[in-house]
Specification:
CATH superfamily: ORF SCO4226, nickel-binding ferredoxin-like monomer
Strand content: 25-35%
Largest sheet: 4 strands, antiparallel
Distance between the termini: 35 Å
Structural class: alpha+beta
Helix content: 25-40%
Order of helices and strands: HEHEEHE
Number of domains: 1
Radius of gyration: 15 Å
Oligomer: single chain
CATH topology: Alpha-Beta Plaits
CATH class: Alpha Beta
CATH architecture: 2-Layer Sandwich
Number of helices: 3
Strand order of the largest sheet: 2-3-1-4
């Protein structure tokens, strides 16, 4: 299902057109969580609370931007100073980080009409 992953990565790139702050880089994290799309609002709220608690402890070198639930996966967008911080957050929060991809570029529909 590589094409689904590519499509979701493209969608995330278009939605997240704001460049990350200063020395932070943008990452997309793929988390394989069986039944993710069946998680209740309360389960998502609890996952968010757990993530936020760890992020608060870790400081300003890592920031959670947004997440997308699709099938048995959650795709998260983070700004971080390093991939190691993403892995540390995953370990401390108990969430898997099956794939971490550094965002190389961001574009959106307005890119087509940008000046050369």
């Amino acid at each position: 299902m590589k094409s689904i992953y590519s499509l979701l990565v493209s969608a995330v790139l278009v939605v997240c057109a704001v460049a990350p702050a200063s020395a932070h880089q943008r990452y997309i994290i793929e988390r394989e969580i069986p039944g993710a799309s069946k998680m209740s609002a309360e389960q998502l709220r609890e996952a968010s609370r757990a993530s936020n608690a760890v992020l608060k402890e870790m400081g300003t070198d890592i920031q959670w931007v947004q997440s997308y639930v699709a099938g048995d996966k959650i795709y998260c967008v983070y700004n971080a100073a390093s991939e190691a911080l993403i892995r540390e957050h995953a370990r401390k929060s108990g969430f898997p980080a099956n794939r971490i991809t550094l965002v190389a570029a961001v574009f959106d529909p307005t890119t087509a009409t940008a000046a050369k």
